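ok so I'm stuck.
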Amino acid sequence: MLRKEALFADFALLGVNAVWGATFVTMKNLLNEVHPLSILFWRFLIAFLVLWNLSRFRGWEKKTLKEGVILGCALFGGYLFQTLGLAYVTPARSAFLTGLSTIIIPFFALLILRTKIGRLLPLSIATALGGLALLSLNGGKGGSAVLWGDMLTVFGATAYALQIVLVEKFAHQNATLSLVTVEMGTVTALSLFFGLPFTLKIPQEPRIWGSLFFLGFFATALSFTVQKIAQRYTSSVHVGIIFISEPVFAALFSYFLWQERLTPQNILGCGLVLLGILIAQLGHS
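replied:
not stuck anymore, here's the structure
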């Protein structure tokens, strides 16, 4: 039975990563018209309201509130830096750099969960850094703005890695809906606080609200609830293997919906990043 549950968790997380892959193009288009912190505020407010109506404070405890806030702070850092970085880089590039979180996960897993670091991690880091160099050394194209975007995105990847490990630590001990509701509420509050007065501006166009609803409901409320449930049946390191698919989905969506074209150097860089991520995860298998 446990094996079936683990298999179901893997497919559920794969679906979540497909949805998250589509968000890079959605976010990139929104950034042309909406401030980054305003996007985060409305996205997570929608998610919070949906989850609030589902949870209704059932099973809420002080422990859930505390750990939900911790998760929310880590998640806010991830989305803040990723969104700011996305203003300077393309959707596919952002996704591949965000994928570096799976290489960072083992370090947080060691510190927080006392999980041993895989023997192949040094090789995976060297491989991924080689890919990062190919992505960042763009022949002068984009200049310092692109490098700044790369750095912000890697900061975001670090925060995501922390959030994934903390989910494994907290998900088994709390009611899923209550935990994720507090987490989404925390990100909403932080976005509102740091984004004033941008977050007070209400978008007017239905097209923008359509994108925000997709981000808030499908890519946040639904996806993070599924993540919490699925991680009850698998480890954070194993989740990292599945998360390799997110930049692949993002690249496909970016190619077909945003007409992004990768140069041979970019493709090689992306391939090395993916290979580095895969090596890191195989070292734990």
